[in-house]
User: Fold these one by one.
Assistant:
Number 1:
Amino acid sequence: MRRTKIVSRTLAAATLTLATLGMGLALASPAQAARGGSDAGTVVATTGGAVRGTIDDSGLRSFQGIPYATPPIGSLRWASPRPATPWAGVREATAPGSPCPQPKGLPIGIPSDTEDCLYLNVTTPVGQAGKKPVIVWIHGGSLMFGSGDIYGPERLAAEGAVVVSVNYRLGVMGFLSEPALGTSGGLGLEDQQAALRWVRANAGAFGGDPANVTIMGESGGGYSVCGHLASPKSAGLFDRAILQSAPCATGGSRTREEAEAEARATIENLRKLGACTEHEDTGSCLRRTDPGTLMKAYGTWNEPRPIAGTDLMPLTPAEALRTGRFNRVPVLIGVNHDEERGRILGQELGGSPMPPGAYEPAIREEFGERADAILARYPLSRFGSAGEALAAVRTDQAWSVPTLDTARLLSRWTPTRMFEFSERDTPAWSGDPELSFELRASHMTELLYLFDLKLPVYEKLTEHQQRLGKRMTHTWVDFAESGKTGWPSFSSGGYVQSLTSGPWKRARFTKDHNYAFWKNLH
């Protein structure tokens, strides 16, 4: 069997904890063992020092807020990450570190101006024999929002994985590319690399296999996975990769010109805000300005990416995959069947449903001279509403087609498996607002089946939905352990597995998403 079951904690009263931290042997009392007390296997030695976590009633150990790098404050703002300063004694690891600076925006965002934020969390099962696969979760949020701790990893850990979630610099603090700063333009990616080095060095102390590390990301976190596949500086830091809703074929990087234009706009906004004077040294102004003002000048809805053509990322992810010059590890890649539904329905919550007469103008504005062909392929009469029609167009064009292209590029060089999350009966938004069409498998809904999302955005999973979640977490951990998923590889005739609450079967992917139409559209 690939994993043993978690040993019953009824034997915990007899637990003998060996603390190799200069504290000698510690015998857990029955009361301590029953409640997962401080002597019941909750102290672990890391390269930085000892940390004390907690054990929950299900038999999972949790260690939160472990520093993996020196706080990027003062002179270290916009500097590459440096190893954390070791500490003496035992550090309490019972609460997550602060989210990295981010404005108020997406529901998954947690407004913060705290720069001391480079922390990670570890969740690991107890009582299982052998080294466990390690999954490093890189949270999404357009590289502007989010933090690792809002994605509860208990379901993945219960399946037998050590799960590490990471905070990394976002937005203006992680991706500003002002020449005066002399950065790579991808400090957020560098932070993730520092965390991966920490994982290689420390996973074994938490029961994980440091030689079997899978990086996993969705949306902005998935584009970070694209970056690690393409970056020579990530070579040797991971052994498998899971890409969710992040087609490397069309994203994951930007040009230096794009990044520097963004930096110039930020500086101009700082001057308008009175934070920088016309004749002040740009670097000095940026370093002394508070994070809140920097974020206001940078903007809320940017989509920052690392810069291609640098030592950090010599090639765009697409070019790296096309030429085979990337870190070749087995990849599980997937996309949701209805990615854009959530975005359009979210706009409804702030106003009203898209009127039928607005559909054609929206397509013409977005697609220009290609609009006639698109309107013929996606006539409004095929859909229940204008918003539903527009969501189908955007899903196929921006998500489905480039994800299949990414799988094709990957499969030329490395073992690749692809899935489509196609479940229709997904959790509703909290409060069950009245919507003009169903949410279905929209962007990030698959995460509800993999994590306990600690935000009141969606309703909780029903028992029926939990069964699908159980099957998915089992599959994800299987892939992390062995590189297999239970369905054929993509190289077997472009195989894509449809994941639903019914029988899992091959998706009609190219037909459902008009793949040939989009590839031939000029």
Number 2:
Amino acid sequence: MAIIEKDSFHLAKSLYYIGDYYDENNSLDEAYLYYSRSEKLYSILNDTLHIGKVKLKKAGILYDNGSYKECEVELINAIKLLSNKKAHRLVYECYNILALNLIELKEYPKSLEYFYLAQNELDKLDKSNSVNIKFSRSNCFNNIGNVYLKMKDYEKAQEFYKKAISIKDLKESKPSLYAMILSNLAYTKLKKGKSEEAKKMLLESYKIRDSLKLNLGIISSKNYLAQYYISQKDTLKAIENITYCYSLSKKIKSAPDVLNSLKLLTEIDTKNKNFYTNEYFRINDSLQQAERATRNKFARIEFETDQVEEENSILIKKNSYIIIGSFILFLFIGTLFILYRLKTKNKELKLIQDQQIKNEEIYQLLLKQQSISEESRKEERNRIAMELHDGVVNSVFTTRFNLMQLESKQTVEKDSIIKELEKTEAEIRRVAHELNLTLNFKDESILNMITNLVEAQKNEWNTQFVVKIDDFIDWNTIEVEIKMNAYRIIQEALQNVNKYSKAKQCIVMLLKTENKTTIRIWDNGIGFNPKKNKKGIGLKNIQERALTMKANLTINSKINNGTSIEIIF
């Protein structure tokens, strides 16, 4: 299925599991082949965790076949990969097998170093999973004891065997491990001269192993018992036990135990010494040949795997060239099309920009004309106010004063006329004063233009347009260009409302806020996403005009929640 789907990860995983199957069934060459193929795929995927796991499996096969140097190389590479992944259980297993491997290479001090490193990994795991770790720790102590046993340091060996066997629930939970440690501990006692205590422990160990049908364990126990009888000068029982070991070793095809049994038989069975010696050399020679053949086989598997991978790599490269060529061709055609579209779009934008420039020029002319017209009106109003104040008021004042100087018998009528003249004088002053005030508080041209613009809006959504302008905005202090841009921003915003908003109401407000002027355009329409629509021409124009005005622009909108535009200048 992984091949059909071209799923490299699951293909690598499948090959790994097939290797496990052959490993369980002792088809080690097949297992090694599938592990190697799995490793190649994981290497392509750069999956360091699984590469490390596969290397550990391959190292185990190499160890079982006596390829100790090759095993060491695989384990060192596995440790490098797995240490970075904090895979403490896997790193523990690597250190453990590496230490066992070094025992076979007779590098005992180095082996102890790696067993202690394995213990450190167990310490890291102990915090989270102490139930399973304690038996691994027991096994590690036993292995360290074995190293000291090889070094003939029986005191140290006994110390670690005692640590190993003292783990709680060991006998009940792991009887095979308990029997092995007990047997090793008994052997150290035998070497230290405690023969009877050793015999008792060896018989207990043998009984457990025999009940569990652990053939390799039975051979080990019988071997130690034979050495006990040798120490007691009981040659017949020693030969009996060693002969049993020899027969069982041949039956289960355990070559190392066969050789060990033959070696002991040549030392104690003087009657058949020549036969056992010849057998020892024959089997030893055949084992060495088989070992060399095995090493060559694994090397050949690696080579054949590399060849297959190289052929696959060539095919992948060919396919890659075809894909890359097709992609480049498609990219070239796509680029030509995009360039054509951009050229067309640029022409359209150029026309729009030219039209906008013309519109700006027309609008500036209109504003200038309005400004000239307003200036003329302003001057005329000032002139009228001055004439009223300086001419008419003075004339009325003079008439009132002269009238007051005249003597008349009709005093009541005279006073009434004087009062009427005072009222007329006051009214003329008031009108002159208001003419000046009007010019200071309102700029009728821009107000009318904005008001007319908003009130003239109509669309298919029947949007209600409202305009509110603060009377305290002093338009006379605002430059013509800024007023023009403000007008254009309102115009662009209203155009967007008409086109897209589907709003029921739109409000345009111009406010005086401290020393700033604020324009707010709000609608209750469908809204939009400013992040997605930020490149629209309308929004871009508004942003450019706000920048020209040196104004702060804020656009807030949410889908189905209306839109608000605020310009402060």
Number 3:
Amino acid sequence: MLELISKVRRGGGDDSGSSLVAVLLVMLVLTIAGLALSSIVVNTAGFTASGRAQAESRAAADAGLAAVSAQLKKGEIACPTAPAKYVVSSPVAVSADAGSRGYTYAVSCTDTIATVRVNANVDGARTALQAEFGFSTSTSLGGDMVFFGTNSIDFNSNVEVTDPGRRVNIVVPEATAFNCNAKIPGNLTVKGNINTQSGCNVSGTVAAGGTLNMCCGSDTFQGDLTLRGTGSSVIRGTINGNILANGRLEFGWENKTIGGSVRTTGDVQLGSVRIQGSLTFPSGRTYTPNSGTVVGGVQRPASVESVPALTLPTWFEYAYKASDWPGYNVVTLVNSGSGVGSCNYFNSSPGTGWTTWLGSLAANTVVDARACTVLSSENGSVPVVQLKTNLVLLANSFNFGSITFRAAASAAGKPSMYVITEDRTPGDHKPTCGTGQSKLYINGTVVEPSVRAIGYTPCSVDVGSKGVDRWSGTLYGGAWSPGGKFTFTADPIGLPGMGAEHGISVETKTVGALQRQRDVTYASLESWTP
């Protein structure tokens, strides 16, 4: 270039114009080449950044899908039934050093399919993945109301057990007697004796380790009756099923009917009863037919097989461990002050812990109130707690006065609530209400069917006199004391580690093998229809 300019300067005047044109042309060519090179560099950098963003978006979506699927299979994420869905719209970081690289997700289940949908957006590069897994729900049918008190247990006319579409199970593994004048749409299992008090109507089977005193013609058992006790039983009401017994049977004069057959090892006195099936008892026993009728005939062999012993559940001893609640935040209350995180934040007026704070929780949470004497809502606030997520309440005793629990409109499926007073004496296989512990007091308490709750206490479950109490879920206690009107709706829920051997009905949701995984069109998870 310098040489060309030098030649131009030395050249004659006649060539000056053409030389200038040549210089300008050379400069133009070099400028265009420079601009082209600059554009190539800029575009290449842009393509590289875009490609990196797309790769990171894909990686974030893949990592999110793997993490959410694993949590779903371990039960750390609940799977609501479609069209309900559980949505996490705040980005979840892929790792601690991933900066803003994260994903959002939603899950939903039908009777047979669990669907996971994941979105990732990195600098405008969007990836959406969807995976579908096999899904099933099973219920181990143990007890829905299980009370281990050794004294008598009463179900009076104020106790109303609703029909959840299956037979409810009332299990009393230790009490010497069960006194009934309530309607039970299910099965009744009692270690000791059963005494009816007029109006006892059981739609399922009745099994007792002792005897039966069915006082009145208004009492009805729709299913089979099994009596393991060797003492005398009196039956004045209706039994629609069969009767198996180990002792003397005396039927009343109320002109009632036994719908099936009767077998016992003891004496038989009929009264005016009508037995639709057969009557079997040993030839060496006394038979007093009176005005009774046995449609299927009387059979009197030399001996009759005894009814085998009743199989009863053992007490489940639960002591809190944080590891039982993976993915739950833990909030530990202190017994001082009145601000957030204190016992008085709940126990004292205005009860902000109940009225506002619990409903604001966006993640599964354990509230550890063991430092408090009691966890109480009886403070004049009459709270309505709208749960978005699962909740564990852990305390030495509970006073649920004038409080309602329901699912928030934004809840993903049905929130679970665990109301727990620990059993501090493990290994003795019986409920131990320890020093400083007291009852679960239900008095003006409403747990709506949009929430399922288990009340677990080695102390007593007591119902107050307000007469508006409703509980949806499971009750598992050391004792039971009814009061005013109480309505119970069975909805299986258990504590970690509970099984059928502990007499509890537990619903198990199982996420199975991957059936399909694919890329899908990126869209808002809130607008996604499962």
